[in-house]
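Chapter summary example: a protein plus cytidine-5'-triphosphate.
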Amino acid sequence: MSPSAPLDALVVAAGRGTRLQSAEDTAPKQYLPLGPRPVLAWTLLALAACAELRRIQVVIHADDGPLYAAALDTLPPALRARLAPPVTGGDTRQASVRLGLEALAAAGSAAGARDGHQLEDGGAPAFVLIHDAARPFLPLAVIERMLAAFADGHEAVLAALPVHDTLKRANSGGVATGTVDRQGLWAAQTPQGFAFPRILAAHRAAAAAGLTGFTDDTSLAEWAGLSVKLVEGAADAYKITTRADLLRARADAARVPAGLPQDASAMTDWSAYPDIRVATGYDVHAFEPGDAVILGGIAVPHERKLAGHSDADVVLHALTDAILGAIADRDIGAHFPPSDPKWKGAASDQFLIHALDLLAARGGKVAHLDVTIVCEAPKIGPVRDAMRERIAEICALPLGRVSVKATTSERLGFTGRKEGIAALATATVRLPAGQDEA
Ligand SMILES: Nc1ccn([C@@H]2O[C@H](COP(=O)(O)OP(=O)(O)OP(=O)(O)O)[C@@H](O)[C@H]2O)c(=O)n1
Ligand SMILES: C[C@](O)(CO)[C@H](O)COP(=O)(O)O
């Protein structure tokens, strides 16, 4: 995939959610609320985090026009402008995907003419990511792994997770009849990404052959002879299928900092945030005996660990202070006193999330984060990207807005003597006008 090859997403949202629906629910699962917005709106926000994505085609049920319109009302204009007019789906997921693909193909032949919609059609895409509306919390890192696979020349790419549970086959009476070898088994998620002409042809061929039973697009692609490349999916990209999944999603939505959906920066109209603030944070922790340090939210194997009341993650602590600095709201110690036993051994992502919540409460957004780690060891280069990904995930930021750097202090001072690690962070945040109160 060349950087300029047009990439579109297709979101299938025409199902009825029969495995979840009960008397309590007034709508199919993709329109049920998860905090401030329905499932489908979260899904679109997550996809829109991908700056390379040109347009999103949603496939809806013929009965769901008003529900779809209400879902769109919860989204910012910048995102709505990237949506093609919705098209009506079919009786199966397979049929809905095919109808969505046909709409994207038709965009190629009727550029700019559909429904007088403001979106510049610009032709059919070169690549398409097909995604379930029912998977609202797709991390941007998964999309980035898929784009990397396209760039490596793969024409069909599946986000999937290795199966870790022992698998049983059972009879209709619920009695085990055998154990399935899980070696080499993966659970398919979405997105599933394809060279657009290849998946369109495959779906057309399956329909022409009267084959209607494909539960996902990569099984159809395999049938059509495409080789499917697996990339690592994410536990967070789970599908809402049952009521238990819905309750899990409601809890997850509550943990996402208010006003900071997953693509907060990618979709932001920054002109609405004229108050630009840059603040710094600094933290130091000493080494003590151990076998790994926690840095930037990940465990880095090392001959020592960092001593501290919490997990002693200097990187997340420095970032937390930088964000608190930008909103002039004291420092991490004031919010999370080391004297409070509650924070003993605490994972530091919660400190950072608290600072992000305070920023969001003022209507603000993070524009950029930059950290410098000062230590002789461990080596930061090999874990830099994992650290960036974890920070981006915690802060709901695109990866391109998170920077991690490292330096030694030339064997000078306490870091040079390998007595501990220091981290310096800079946060650039943007706020709406009028946030001057102390
Ligand atoms: N005719 C269909 C069936 C499913 N889907 C979409 O495909 C995704 C994955 O399907 P699934 O979880 O099975 O959704 P439902 O079919 O709605 O659920 P159920 O099988 O419980 O009825 C969902 O986003 C769903 O809206 C669709 O667009 N058209
Ligand atoms: C596409 C899919 O979400 C991949 O896991 C899945 O196949 C949808 O099928 P379901 O059986 O209807 O959940």
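Key point: Confidence is low (pLDDT under 50) at residues 110-120, 258-264.
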